[in-house]
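Tutorial, part two.
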Amino acid sequence: QVQLVECGGGLVQAGGSLRLSCAASGLETRTYDMAWFRQAPGKEREMVASINWSATNTYYPDTVKGRFLISRDNAKNTVALQMNSLKPEDTAVYYCAASFKFATAYIYWGQGTQVTVSS
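Running the prediction step on this input gives:
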């Protein structure tokens, strides 16, 4: 059974930092592209970072570019998201997701972790 478990969310003041971690079990992350998504109340889910299976490519939308950094440790089956210079608009539930390499759909999802940024 595949499980993705996120941790590291919480309440932080604007300008602060948080580091989210995602631990995978039931799959070998070295064969999966990984990503972080977020969803705020009343808004659509959006990808905030992705990293391919070999860690040779990453993607960030303009909303977080330069502030967020995704990394992975395939030996430990983990993915992390370092979030700096946080803004109130970064408040959302953050999800870790996995997509088999060369595929297009993210098929495994974590349960999410809440990030709240106060102004």
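The first strand starts at residue 3 and ends at 7. In part three we will examine how such features are distributed along the chain.
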